[in-house]
């Protein structure tokens, strides 16, 4: 009942079913920034490019500074947005550069926290690194930073004298999470 043709059909169906999952997990064709920006490194990068564009008076036609962050123009429908130049003054960020930025940010944060041997703190540092420098981060991803901070507050390995400071940071993160997802609420 099982033949090579059945194996081929199952493999093709599996690849076909997993392709949308891969495109959602790695949205490289959707551009660097999301319409509702996430408070990570790239909106700051875009602001610096925007200021440079205005000061120098040169803007690339497909730039995020002239056509918006997500929908560049009708002429680019179906075009992989990651292949278009998106910045006028600063170099455009491609997926490989975003991966390098994640690795550098992750390395710096782990280097800061490695002596403490506190796993919840290292989990928090890694989630901050991935949120801060990943490609096409949604505003809802801020919750991935908040949850490890909450775990750090209640972890038995957290020193009692550090819980107060960690709790203050967690409250600030919770406020930032609320502010970043506020545009998703109807009527806001």
Automatic annotation (TrEMBL):
Query: Domain of life, per the record?
Result: Eukaryota
GO cellular component terms? endoplasmic reticulum membrane
**One Pfam family, short name:** Alg6_Alg8
Known EC number: 2.4.1.-
Membrane protein topology class: Multi-pass membrane protein
Q: What class of enzyme is it?
A: transferase
The UniProt entry's GO biological process terms, in alphabetical order, are:
protein N-linked glycosylation
Which GO terms label this protein's molecular function in UniProt?
A: dolichyl pyrophosphate Glc1Man9GlcNAc2 alpha-1,3-glucosyltransferase activity
Q: Which family does it belong to?
A: Belongs to the ALG6/ALG8 glucosyltransferase family.
* UniProt protein name: Alpha-1,3-glucosyltransferase
Native organism: Neobodo designis
> What high-level taxonomic lineage is stated for the organism?
Eukaryota, Discoba, Euglenozoa, Kinetoplastea, Metakinetoplastina
